[in-house]
C-alpha cells in the first residue's frame, strides 16, 4: 500500500560508508546498542541489556537541551519587533519606507546567510557554528537596543539574522547526526520550541516592556538574555562537533586522477530538492502573509484590534502541539503527501471563510490557518527524510531553505500592493488561497519516498 504506516526508523536509510566519523558520544551509544543484540538470527533471546555509557547519555541530553534552547531563539528577534515598530520608528526617526523594508529583511538574510552554513559547518563543525550563531543573535539583539540611528539598528538586526540563518540550516543536520533513528520526534521537539519562541515573543514583549518600566530599547534588548542562555550548552558541545566535522562537499578522488578532488554532483540536478525548496518557499510565503496581514483583515471586517491580535496569537499557537505531532507522523509514513494535502485543504477552508464571513467565523478561520501553517515543521522533517547521508542533509537544508526564503520575499509585499489598489481583501485573499495549490503539488512531490543521493549520485 502506498501510504503504509511503518516504524519511524524504517524511513532512515543506511549511512554511506564514506561518511565522516560520528561524534564519539554517538559511536558509544550505537556500539552499546549493537552489543546488546543477539549474535545472529538464532542467537539467545532475553540477553540482559547493559546501559549505555554515562558520557554518551549525558552528551545526548545536552544536545537535546541545546537544540531546544537554540530553537527558542530562532524567531524572537523578529516577532518582538513588530509590536514595538511604531515606537522604534519614532525613537530613531525611521522613515516609513525603511520600516516597511524591515519586514522583508528576515527572509532575505535567511536566504543569503544560509548559503554560508554548509561551508562553515565543514570547516568548524555544525555545533560550533550554532554556538557562534547563538552568540551573534545575542550580540545583534543587544546592540540594536542601544543603536543611536537607523543604520546601526539595521546592521545589528542583520547580525542577529545572520546567526538565525546559519542555525536554521544546521538544526536538521544536528538532528540527523545525533538522533538518526528519531528524526521525526526530534524535529517535532525543536519545531515546537520554535513555535513557542515565536508566539511568546510576539505576545509578551509589550506587557513585559511596561512591567519593566522601560521603553522599546528594554523591550527589544531583553531577548538577548535568552540567546546568551542558549550559548552555554553549545560551548560544551563545540569540541565534540569539531572532532567530527560535517562531510565535505566534494566527492572522493577517482582512481587514477592523481588525487585531484572533483566537485560533488550538484544538488540542483535533484527534482526532489527543487520540489522541497518550492514547498518550503510557498509555505514560508503563507506564514509571512499571515503574520503580516491577518490582523488587518480581521480589523477591516469589524473585529476589535485587541481581538484581532489574539486571533493571530491563536493561529501561531496552533504550531505548538502540531509541530510535535506532525513530524512524528511524517517519520512513520512511506509517503508524506497525505499530510501535505490535509494541511493545504485546511488553509483553503480558512481562506474561504475569510472571504465569505471573516468576522462571524473568525475563531474557526484562525484555527484552520494555524493548522495550515504547520507545513513548516513538515518541511523541516522532509529535509532529514529526503537525504540519507550527513553531507546530503547539509546541502539539502541549505538549498531548500535559502531558495525557499528567496521565493517567499515577494509574497507579503504583493499582497499589500493588491490590497492597496483593489481597495478590499477579496483579491488578496484569493491570491493567498491560490498559492496553496502549487504548495500542495510541490509538497506531494517532495514527500515521495526517495533521496537526493539516489537522484544525483551524491556521496557523503
Give the secondary structure arrangement, pairings included.
Layout: H1 24-36, H2 54-72, H3 76-79, H4 85-92, H5 96-102, H6 105-114, H7 117-124, H8 126-145, H9 150-178, H10 183-211, H11 216-221, H12 224-243, E1 250-251, E2 262-263, H13 271-300, H14 305-317, H15 319-331, H16 337-356, H17 362-372, H18 375-385, H19 390-408, H20 410-422, H21 426-446, H22 452-456
Antiparallel strand pairs: 1-2
Describe this structure in words.
With 460 residues, the chain is mainly alpha-helical. It has helices at residues 24-36, 54-72, 76-79, 85-92, 96-102, 105-114, 117-124, 126-145, 150-178, 183-211, 216-221, 224-243, 271-300, 305-317, 319-331, 337-356, 362-372, 375-385, 390-408, 410-422, 426-446, 452-456, and strands spanning 250-251, 262-263. Helix content is 72%, strand content 1%. Strands 1-2 form a two-stranded antiparallel ribbon.
Amino acid at each position: 500500500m502506498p501510504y503504509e504506516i511503518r516504524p519511524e526508523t524504517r524511513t532512515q536509510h543506511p549511512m554511506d560508508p564514506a561518511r565522516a566519523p560520528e561524534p564519539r558520544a554517538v559511536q558509544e551509544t550505537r556500539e552499546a546498542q549493537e552489543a546488546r543484540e543477539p549474535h545472529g538470527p538464532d542467537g539467545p533471546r532475553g540477553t540482559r541489556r547493559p546501559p549505555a555509557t554515562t558520557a554518551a547519555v549525558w552528551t545526548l541530553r545536552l544536545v537535546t537541551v541545546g537544540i531546544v534552547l537554540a530553537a527558542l531563539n530562532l524567531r524572537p528577534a523578529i516577532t518582538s519587533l513588530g509590536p514595538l515598530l511604531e515606537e522604534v520608528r519614532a525613537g530613531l526617526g525611521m522613515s516609513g519606507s525603511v520600516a516597511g523594508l524591515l519586514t522583508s529583511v528576515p527572509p532575505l538574510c535567511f536566504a543569503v546567510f544560509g548559503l554560508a552554513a554548509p561551508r562553515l559547518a565543514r570547516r568548524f563543525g555544525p555545533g560550533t557554528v550554532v554556538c557562534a550563531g547563538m552568540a551573534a543573535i545575542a550580540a545583534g539583539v543587544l546592540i540594536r537596543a542601544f543603536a543611536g540611528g537607523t543604520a546601526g539598528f539595521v546592521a545589528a538586526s542583520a547580525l542577529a539574522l545572520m546567526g538565525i540563518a546559519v542555525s536554521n540550516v544546521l538544526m536538521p543536520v544536528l538532528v540527523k547526526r545525533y538522533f538518526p533513528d528519531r528524526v521525526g520526534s526530534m524535529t517535532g521537539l525543536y519545531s515546537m520550541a520554535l513555535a513557542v519562541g515565536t508566539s511568546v515573543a510576539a505576545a509578551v514583549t509589550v506587557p513585559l516592556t511596561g512591567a519593566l518600566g522601560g521603553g522599546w530599547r528594554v523591550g527589544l534588548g531583553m531577548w538577548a538574555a535568552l540567546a546568551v542562555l542558549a550559548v552555554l550548552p553549545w560551548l560544551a558541545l563545540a569540541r565534540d562537533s569539531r572532532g567530527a566535522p560535517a562531510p565535505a562537499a566534494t566527492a572522493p578522488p577517482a582512481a587514477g586522477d592523481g588525487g585531484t578532488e572533483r566537485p560533488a554532483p550538484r544538488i540542483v540536478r535533484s527534482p526532489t530538492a527543487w520540489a522541497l525548496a518550492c514547498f518550503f518557499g510557498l509555505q514560508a510565503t503563507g506564514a509571512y502573509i499571515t503574520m503580516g496581514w491577518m490582523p488587518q483583515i480581521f480589523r477591516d471586517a469589524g473585529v476589535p484590534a485587541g481581538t484581532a491580535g489574539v486571533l493571530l496569537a491563536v493561529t501561531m499557537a496552533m504550531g505548538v502541539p502540531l509541530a510535535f505531532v506532525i513530524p512524528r507522523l511524517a517519520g512513520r509514513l512511506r509517503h508524506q503527501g497525505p499530510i501535505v494535502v490535509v494541511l493545504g485543504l485546511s488553509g483553503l477552508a480558512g481562506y474561504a471563510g475569510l472571504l465569505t464571513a471573516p468576522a462571524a467565523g473568525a475563531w474557526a478561520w484562525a484555527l484552520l490557518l494555524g493548522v495550515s501553517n504547520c507545513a513548516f515543521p513538515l518541511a523541516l522533517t522532509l529535509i532529514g527524510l529526503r537525504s540519507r547521508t550527513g553531507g546530503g542533509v547539509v546541502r539539502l537544508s541549505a538549498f531548500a531553505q535559502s531558495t525557499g526564503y528567496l521565493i517567499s520575499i515577494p509574497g507579503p509585499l504583493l499582497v499589500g500592493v493588491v490590497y492597496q489598489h483593489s481597495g478590499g481583501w477579496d483579491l488578496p485573499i484569493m491570491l493567498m488561497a491560490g498559492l496553496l495549490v502549487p504548495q500542495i503539488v510541490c509538497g506531494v512531490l517532495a514527500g515521495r519516498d526517495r533521496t537526493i543521493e539516489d537522484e544525483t549520485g551524491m556521496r557523503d
